[in-house]
Design goal:
The complex is a heterodimer of chains A (433) and B (261). Chain A is an all-alpha fold. Chain A has helices at 2-29, 41-53, 62-91, 98-101, 103-131, 145-178, 189-192, 195-198, 203-228, 235-245, 258-267, 293-301, 307-311, 313-316, 323-342, 354-358, 361-365, 372-376, 383-398, 403-415, 428-431. Chain B has helices at residues 6-11, 23-28, 30-46, 62-66, 70-86, 97-106, 119-128, 161-169, 205-215, 226-238, 250-257; strands spanning 18-21, 50-51, 91-94, 115-118, 144-147, 173-175, 220-223, 246-249. Classes of the chains: A mainly alpha (433), B alpha/beta (261).
């Protein structure tokens, strides 16, 4: 009875904390410009199914893809067991599904255990890859102490949670032989290996071990759920949203600015049938509120894997640009503004901005718009969109583009070519043939 | 070399099969003018009825848009669309992937919808239709050629196979670089980088790419983009390999194989 009350209290507490944080995340994303009505829904759902649910793009690199798949499937399937945990916790029962499912239950728990071991091994491998093999993309400039710690915390937590499940099942199986109150599960393969460790323990000690492991696992999961909302691990949810909102046009296409279209049309005297321009606001993006909500969702969908940066030609040749950092900066700035607003602070008016304080002109100017980062992202994040929006602000609001670009702009304006050649000479190539 | 302008044809009441969009590099860059001429010679030889805009053509606005100057881009786009729509243009072929991308993907939103084809695809079509025949493979038979994917053809528009099909028609020995197709490495000039110096780094991108191309041991680096042409030519020169390794556009290779030079 005490356990039930405690459980209800724990559930309510974590439910409250998670709800608060989810609302905060929603407010943060709402800093951005509304996405508006989406089109081509069937293609969008197809992307969600293939890329987020089906992990299609992960399989460009096979070994990490398989290990990631273990963790991913483990997450989906083991959470079915959490359902039993919650029912047991609320009603004070033990393994409520076992009597109903019979040998099917044994099979199910064995699958869970197999996945728990697979997750555990994958996490160990990933820890080794990050910390011992030191894969360069996990150690580049923007991977400062927190991003590295965050990654390790996630992996260690998953290992500990899986160990808790296996410990619980091992203790439980021994208790089944000693105490008839314990529901018979049938023999469980993987936790069976742990049973010799507990065989000599007294029944009260085993009871304690089983209960502790049970509580540790469920509280661990609830705590982890809260942690996720602050972590790069939020990608497990945001990847689904991001693949839905991902751009469907060819990668070479850059978003049109209807506000500019209206102005250009009126400058060219093409104003017939043109609705008067809406309040132009700001051209391009200086801060997170100038980006679209889709860009901000993308920032939360980024798990900092760095495949984008490892493919970026500018980054490969030592320039400051890192597409991953663009996404991390966008997220950090959004979080900063969101926290400030939640506390009644100045929010966007804190004297800082995404461009300048987080992302420098040197970084955005180095981009060749080659789309390598877009191609390499397993969850369809598009750092190039943000880079172009920042460049638009610099060019149109600040006239702060590099001098050579300003010269190029001037050439196009006066000679209709980016080079300083006379428009009248454009057809000369045909004459000297 | 017969180069009719659209104005001339229209005056005669004729309609061309295609508009050949030459682009700024194709019009002004000394090296790329040779590509323009090679392509025109192919069109003449094959008997494709085409026209160019001549002095009526202007920059598509691609570098302006990518550098962030949306006003300038749209001014260019609107003006070009007025000209193209005025002539009732339906089909455009261009040798520049940047022009191709902008005309194809970005003009429709501003009122200019055309069938836009890059010359790699167009050449492949001519080969498939039997209008270009490279009997016995010509001078490239068995020669090692590597193809550098332009970002604006490849990743930007998923055109990977057409240029390779053109090279295979030459009976050449096509060798791939470490980075190719979807993971192709940029030449360093896209996104308006062509028009300014690179940011500080430890290496120039075109040098990195030229090294990859040279590692294949190919005697010819085939390109399909004026920016890639400039960047790789410079890269090969920087490695002092310009006497052994040639950087050539697909159109030049076909023209050469056809004896059209």
């Amino acid at each position: 009875m005490i356990q039930q009350v405690l459980f209800i209290f724990a559930l309510a507490f974590f439910g409250f904390v998670i709800r608060k944080r989810v609302l905060q995340l929603r407010n943060n994303v709402r800093l951005g410009k509304p996405i508006g009505k989406t089109n081509r829904e069937p293609e969008r759902f197809r992307n969600v199914l293939l890329v987020a649910f089906g992990q299609k793009k992960m399989f460009k690199r096979f070994i990490p893809a398989i290990l990631h798949l273990f963790i991913y499937v483990g997450f989906l399937v083991i959470n079915l067991e959490v359902l039993e945990f919650i029912i047991d916790g609320l009603t004070g029962t033990h393994r409520i599904f076992a009597p109903y499912l019979g040998s099917f239950y044994t099979g199910l728990i064995n699958i869970f255990e197999f996945l728990a071991v697979a997750v555990l091994l994958a996490c160990v491998f990933f820890l080794i890859r990050r910390n011992v093999l030191k894969l360069p993309r996990f150690w580049s400039a923007e991977m400062t102490s927190w991003p590295r710690l965050d990654a390790n915390l996630i992996l260690v937590t998953e290992i500990v949670l899986m160990l808790a499940i296996l410990t619980m099942n091992a203790a439980d199986q021994i208790l089944q032989t000693r105490d008839e109150h314990y529901t018979i599960t049938g023999s469980l393969y993987f936790s069976g290996f742990l049973m010799p460790l507990f065989q000599n323990a007294g029944t009260p000690a085993l009871l304690l071990i089983e209960r502790c492991a049970w509580w540790f696992h469920i509280i661990g999961i609830l705590g982890f759920a809260v942690y996720i909302t602050y972590s790069k691990h939020l990608h497990i949810f945001m990847a689904f949203l991001n693949t839905y909102y991902a751009k469907l046009e060819p990668k070479g296409h850059i978003n049109n600015m209807p506000v500019v279209t209206n102005e250009v049309k009126s400058m060219l005297g093409l104003t017939q049938g043109v609705t008067p321009p809406a309040e132009p606001g700001r051209f391009g993006a200086k801060d997170v509120n100038d980006l679209s909500q889709a860009n901000l969702i993308a920032a939360y969908a980024c798990t900092e894997c760095g495949r984008c940066t490892s493919e970026c030609p500018a980054n490969l040749t030592g320039k400051k640009l890192s597409p991953r950092k663009i996404m991390m900066d966008t997220r950090d700035r959004m979080e900063e503004v969101g926290h400030s607003l939640a506390k009644g602070g100045p929010g966007l008016n804190d004297g800082k901005s995404l461009l300048g304080d987080y992302i420098t002109k040197e970084e955005i100017n180095a981009c060749t718009s080659c789309n390598a980062c877009v191609e390499s992202c397993p969850v369809l994040i598009n750092p190039l969109e943000i880079i172009v929006e920042l460049r638009r602000y610099v060019a149109m609001e600040e006239s702060g583009s590099p001098p050579a670009w300003n010269a190029m702009f001037q050439n196009i304006e006066t000679n209709f070519a980016p080079w300083k050649f006379s428009a009248a000479d454009r057809f000369n190539w045909a004459k000297d043939a | 070399m017969n180069v009719p302008t659209l104005a001339e044809l229209t005056a005669k009441g004729e309609i061309p099969e295609i508009l050949f969009w030459v682009g700024c590099a194709g019009s002004y860059d000394d090296r790329y003018k040779r590509v323009t001429k090679a392509f025109v010679k192919i069109l003449n030889a094959v008997g494709v009825k085409f026209a160019v805009l001549g002095t009526e053509e202007t920059c598509t606005g691609d570098p302006a848009r990518r550098a962030g100057n949306e006003f300038l881009f749209q001014m260019q786009a609107m003006n070009n669309i007025q000209v193209l729509n005025g002539y009732g243009i339906k089909k455009i072929v261009t040798a520049c992937p940047h022009c191709f991308n902008t005309l194809k993907n970005e003009y429709p939103e501003l009122g200019g919808t055309y069938e836009v084809i890059h010359h790699a695809t167009f050449l492949q079509q001519l080969i498939n239709e039997g209008r270009i025949k490279v009997a016995g493979g010509g001078p490239f038979k068995g020669k090692k050629i590597t193809y550098h994917d332009s970002c604006y053809l490849g990743r930007a528009n998923t055109i990977y196979e057409a240029p390779r099909a053109v090279l295979e028609a030459l009976d050449a020995d096509l060798v791939e670089m470490k980075h190719c197709r979807a993971t192709g490495l940029c030449c360093g000039a896209g996104g308006a980088q062509m028009f300014k110096d690179a940011e500080k780094g430890k290496k120039e991108i075109n040098l990195e790419r030229a090294e990859e191309a040279l590692q294949t041991g190919a005697g010819t680096i085939a390109v399909a983009c004026p920016f890639c042409m400039t960047m790789l030519t410079d890269g090969v020169k920087a490695k002092e390999k310009e006497d052994e390794v040639r950087v050539k556009d697909l159109a030049e290779l076909i023209a050469e194989a056809q004896g059209l030079t």
